[in-house]
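Journal club prep, shared notes

We agreed each person brings one worked example of a sequence with its structure written out as tokens. Mine is DNA-binding protein. I'm keeping it raw so we can talk through how to read the token line rather than staring at a rendered picture. Sequence first:
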Amino acid sequence: MKTLPLRLVPGQDLRAALADVLAAHGTAAGFVLQGIGSLRGARLRLAGAAQATDVEGDIEILTLAGSLSPDGPHLHMSVADASGRVLGGHVLAGCTIRTTAEILIALLPDHRFARELDAASGFDELVVHSHDC
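Then the structure, token by token:
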């Protein structure tokens, strides 16, 4: 495992920036171990919901974690708005960095992650491959 501290800057889309990390570092598997920072609005998909929830205004990232694969990131995040209300869910495109996002990523050079349809869940789920197979 190789750790990669990363800072995102104002205006970057959180999900898009993390989707680019693996290719930029020549690996095919990784995890976001933790992240903090601030956003200018967020789009989250809450548990069991079919539609996105938009969180308006300036918000703080309290936690950020997930897996990174060439098929795209699977990220969960909790955020707090200006009144301290906390909300969490799946990170969607449209989470724009306000001042900073400080993120720690673990790159796994001996593995390759993929997302494949799982008949039991009905969703594309993580499949872990070792490079030696």
